[in-house]
Fold this sequence. Notes:
52% helix
Amino acid sequence: xxxxxxxxxxxxxxxxxxxxxxxxxxxxxxxxxxxxxxxxxxxxxxxxxxxxxxxxxxxxxxxxxxxxxxxxxxxxxxxxxxxxxxxxxxxxxxxxxxxxxxxxxxxxxxxxxxxxxxxxxxxxxxxxxxxx
Length: 132
C-alpha cells in the first residue's frame, strides 16, 4: 500500500472510532512474527507495549517484520511497514514520517505515549538500516 492509498483510506472515515477500527484491521493484516524473533535484541525501547522489529536486507532493499502485544500498536507497525518495506536506506532515511502521521490524522487522536512509541519504532527502523 502506498502513502497516498493510506491517506485516501483514512480519509474515507468520518470519525475517529472508524479510523481506530481500521487501524486495528491494518494490524491484523501483518504476518505473524516467529516467536524465536521476539527477543530483547529485536525489542523496541521507548514503547509501553511489547514491540519487536526485525530486518533483512536483499541487495539495496530492506524488508521488515514487526509484532506487538497491542492491537493499536500493530496497526501503527502496519502503517510503518507499508511505507518502508522493500525500500532503500536513502528512501527510509528521507521519508517524512511525521508529515504522513499528521496527514493520516493520527497526530490529534493518539495518546502522547502511543505517539512516542510510534516514533520509537521509526527510530529503531532507521537505526537498523544505518547499521546494515
